[in-house]
Amino acid sequence: MSTEKDLESERLMQCLARIDSNLGAIGVRLTDYQRDIQAAHDHMWEARRDMDHIDKIGMRQSIDQMMRSSDVLRAQAKKLEKLRKSPYFGRFDFRRTDRNETAAHYIGIHDFRDDETQEPWVYDWRAPVSSLFYDFETGPAQYVAPSGTIPGDLLLKRQFRIRDGAMDFMLDVSVNIVDDVLQDALAQASDDGMKNIVATIQRDQNAIIRDADAHTLIIQGVAGSGKTSIALHRIAFLLYRFKDTLTSSDILIISPNRVFADYIGNVLPELGEETVPEIGMETLAKQLLGSGIRFQTFFEQTALLLETDDEAMKARIRAKATQDFLRQIESYAQHLEKTAFVANDLTVRRRPLPGFVFDTTWNRLKHLDTAERIVATGNAMIEQFQQQYEIELRKEERAVVRSAVRGMVNRPTLRAAYKGLLDWIDRPDLFKPTGGKFEYADVFPLIYLQMLTEGVENPYAGVKHLLVDEMQDYTPAHYAVLARLFPCRKTVLGDATQSVNPYSASTAEQIESVLEGAWRVTLNKSYRSTWEIMEFALKISPNPDLVAMERHGPVPDVRVVKTPQQALARIAAAVEEFHDSDHTSLAVLAKTQAQAKRLHKHLAEAGVQARLLEEGSSGFSTGVIVCTPHLAKGLEFDRVMIPDVSAAVYATEMDRNLLYVACTRAMHRLSLISVGAPSDFLDVKQHVNA
Ligand SMILES: Nc1ncnc2c1ncn2[C@@H]1O[C@H](COP(=O)(O)OP(=O)(O)OP(=O)(O)O)[C@@H](O)[C@H]1O
């Protein structure tokens, strides 16, 4: 008698055979198209003298059509080839209450319907019915189809791992998809980039991924809770759900840096979608402000804070990261508006144009930016004059009116207006550009002021969904600008406890108050790190709501050494041990970029190969990496080493955050070295191995 496993193996073989047969049919059709295209080209060439213009256009259109059809077939073949390696990862049997039959559903990354029989062999994980797999245990269950809610009974839930067309294992699960399969996924060594999690999406994560109602969704999630993964799966879901109206190029991701963008870049293609355009806040700011205004980067600001611990600088950053400051910018913009236009009477061809008419016209055109408004006011005044006096103005007379309008405009430059704002609120001390560069804290307030006074051209008016990652590092001014620039739907995610600059950090609640009508969700379960690493990190930055995953590994060790040379020797030994292990990534995270650079140099001198990540680095890679918590934010590594956790290095609240971010990057192993007495943030009694 056949066992369940035999039956599943047989079904897998049949499915693969159907995929092969469909691939074969596509191959034949592609060859036919190629032949027909070639024949059409030959014909066009041979008959070129006998064909008239219309014939040629007709022929070209038919060739274009064949080429488009070939492209569609090629894309289908690509999907099938991918599916062939791993056609599905789950099965559930569902009996609908309204039908007396049970149907087995297999779910995978794409759907697969046999071309010949139209039989659904695999359902896309994003299909409405597939939500049963993520949302229910065996027993009563329901899903929402386009026709309404479909109730029934979930009779079986099964998981598979199929690699290269062969079944590694199958497992029946009666409870939620935790346990073995998830444990197995989390225990794997890190990849070249972020992985997709379709096979093990958890119920609360699924609810966020499939939410199509929220206009703006703010996801506050603890370190390693899967926020970034979920946000990307949500994009894949929305692209599937709204395939007729939404394409990848309609979406924009605002990400913290190029390394992160590269790290997450593979998830959507793995899920069968095109990559989505991505931009950093600074590039966005440059586009909006133009090249005339230079400014410090966020990275430079953080580095300076760490190196100088400048109280006045902290105060400036703090003051500009408040909602009050936003309100002050708004009031000041209104004040500027009132004084922006000083109207006078004008006489043209001995006929008067009174100042109050200039005034009303200018006020009526408030919706335009300043340059457009000047032109429009001039035109409207000329029109009005000509209508009123029933005469046609000559070219030079029209120029007089236009020039008079220009003369009535009293707009300071953006720089002067911003300085004026700080004087107006009686805080001239907040204005501190250095070497002609504005501080980073000024950048988004400047843009907001410009939006409210001059207006800015919006290069992103076509974006239909905006995704903002690492939300905690942006201030109310950032969000006020984003809200105006992107009135579209948004997914905003981050973790307030992982801010790399606590003086300008935002919580989900604060962001919610700027992005009106937003919904906020919270994720407290952490998946990335072992239970031991998470316990260790929680001592640095306690969070009673965080639930660590029950996956065990070595307890993090804190080694106290006496000299930097001893620390270097320990790192070199750890690198060697790493190379002998099954792990693929080791990050050595120094607190500041200057320390990382120095360490990288010393390691190179000691013959230890490592890659230094810097502000301008563009690609993620595995192997040994030296960088800072700031740059490692959002990334993860099999192993993390922190080269000096001494009290001298980690002392301030900002340091505490950075240490927490550094520790929570580790998936399987965490080791720390302290040159001298360890930081007070560490529970050293438990961990010192001198
Ligand atoms: N349901 C899941 N199944 C398998 N792996 C998961 C799941 N959820 C999260 N993970 C894994 O947990 C790790 C952390 O995910 P991710 O980077 O998306 O979290 P995050 O909340 O954005 O983290 P952080 O804020 O700390 O950067 C990743 O390795 C991800 O694959």
TrEMBL record:
<keyword id="KW-0347">Helicase</keyword>
<dbReference type="Pfam" id="PF00580">
    <property type="entry name" value="UvrD-helicase"/>
</dbReference>
<dbReference type="InterPro" id="IPR027785">
    <property type="entry name" value="UvrD-like_helicase_C"/>
</dbReference>
<dbReference type="GO" id="GO:0004386">
    <property type="term" value="F:helicase activity"/>
</dbReference>
<dbReference type="InterPro" id="IPR027417">
    <property type="entry name" value="P-loop_NTPase"/>
</dbReference>
<feature type="binding site">
    <location>
        <begin position="221"/>
        <end position="228"/>
    </location>
    <ligand>
        <name>ATP</name>
    </ligand>
</feature>
<keyword id="KW-0547">Nucleotide-binding</keyword>
<protein>
    <submittedName>
        <fullName>Helicase</fullName>
    </submittedName>
</protein>
<keyword id="KW-0067">ATP-binding</keyword>
<dbReference type="InterPro" id="IPR014016">
    <property type="entry name" value="UvrD-like_ATP-bd"/>
</dbReference>
<feature type="domain" description="UvrD-like helicase ATP-binding">
    <location>
        <begin position="200"/>
        <end position="530"/>
    </location>
</feature>
<keyword id="KW-0378">Hydrolase</keyword>
<dbReference type="InterPro" id="IPR000212">
    <property type="entry name" value="DNA_helicase_UvrD/REP"/>
</dbReference>
<dbReference type="Pfam" id="PF13538">
    <property type="entry name" value="UvrD_C_2"/>
</dbReference>
